[in-house]
Amino acid sequence: MTTDTPATGGKKKKSTTPSPTPVPASARVTSSEAAALLAAVRNMAEGKYDVRVDLSGLSAESAQLAVAINDLMTRVQEDLAESNYRRERIQHVVDNAIGGLMVVVRQGELSAFNTSTDDPVLAPLLDGFGKVIETLRTFVREINEAALRLSSSANEVLAASTQHESSSTEQAAAIHETTATMEELKHASAQIAENAGSVARVAEETLNSARSGRGAIAEFIQAMQQIRADGIAVSESITKLLRRVERIGTVVEVIDEIADRSDLLALNAALEGSRAGEAGKGFSIVAAEMRRLAENVLDSTKEIKNLISEIREATTAAAGAAEASRTATEAGERLGSVAATAVEGILAGVQETSDAARVINLATQQQRTATEQVVASMAEIEDVTRQTTQASKQATSAAAELTQLATRLSELIKRFKAD
Amino acid sequence: MAAQPDEEVFVFRTGDMALGVLSARVREVTRMGPLTPLPRTPSFVLGVVGHRGEVLPLIDLLRFFGQGESRPTSRSRFFIGETGSFMAAFFADAVVGLRRILLSDKLPPPLGGGSQAEFLTGVVQSPEFGTLNLLDVAKVITHARAKAVIR
Which one, out of A21, A37, A402, B87, has a CA that is 20 to 30 A from the CA of A278? Predict the structure, then answer.
């Protein structure tokens, strides 16, 4: 720009050179005067604006021209001086701006940039700079904020992924435990299935036993009824026997009475014989024999009476026993029917037990299948968890790296002072 | 008396005593019949009984000897003893029968042998009865009559 300015001036001089063209119309200009004018113009063309044409000795026309040239020279000189002054001002402003930019670049100090100027030409430029710097400040502020946020977020991510990592490790352990537990459950359900099978077997056996028990109870009840009938018959027989024995007792009483009388008669006969002296001796002997017979009969009847009383006691005891037997058989029948009811209940219960055991067996088999599926699923989950753990490890390291990066970014952006 | 080697006695028991009476003094043995108590008689007279149209006093020998009381039952007997024209019925718990005893075995009644000794003609030791007391029925009847009359 600075170099252009004299060129323009030069051009202006050249364009003004043809202006004396009307001069030749006055053909009264001498050659010496023309030379002096030419020299003056030449000086101007060479940039020597302080040279003036000497008006002395010039014709009127030449003097007029010379004045014009001198005026032009002065004018050019003034313009040049002003132009220089303006150039210096601009230079100063530009230097200031460059200095500010240098500060911006070297120290990152964005707040120190001054955009004020009174130059209307430079104002938009500086304004543009200012806007750019302002934009940069905004950027720096936002980046700083973003870096801070990024740092905290990265820290959070790091914490989260670390936690996730430990969680997934725990999860892996839990899954391992669950798998072990499911294995145990599988074994347990196999055991249960086996036990349910044996329960079903036992129930089947019990069912058979209870069925045979039912038959036995029916036979028992029948036997009891038979015994009761027999007992009634025995009781009747005993009553009859007792009646006969009573009759025998009556007869024996009669015999006894007769024997007693015979005894007395024989005794008195013996006394009579004795009183008859020698003649009655034989009679006495016979009477004594009769008496012995009567005493024998009395002994026998006494024995019979004893026997009868024994028989009476025995028959009374037998009647009591028959009565007790009847009561017992009735109780037995009742108990038998109770037992029959109970066995029916047992049959129903055992049937239910058998069914239940079968259902349990089936259910445990299903459970075993389900458990196996769960174990398989658990293995898959374990795989996935392992991958997750791997991924979360990677995420942790990435988050750590991200944290470092955020720290670095923060440090970098700190070099720019926006405020 | 010595010419007879033995004599026949009627043997009975009353209480724990075995007593013998000469069979010639025993008229009859009979069963206990209805007994009619008599007022104002000695305690050994249990009452009167009817026998073949005659009313006889019934004497309890246990009471007579002061050795307790007899307890009549349906099986009890009494025998009718006689002496001269007097007769009395005697209570017997059990009648044994007629036995022959040798006179040589006969011993005198023991002195101080109790109140019954004065009414005994003697005693005989026998394996069947132990001590068999031979009762003097005539003396008993005489004594009883005397006592009853005095009262």
Answer: B87
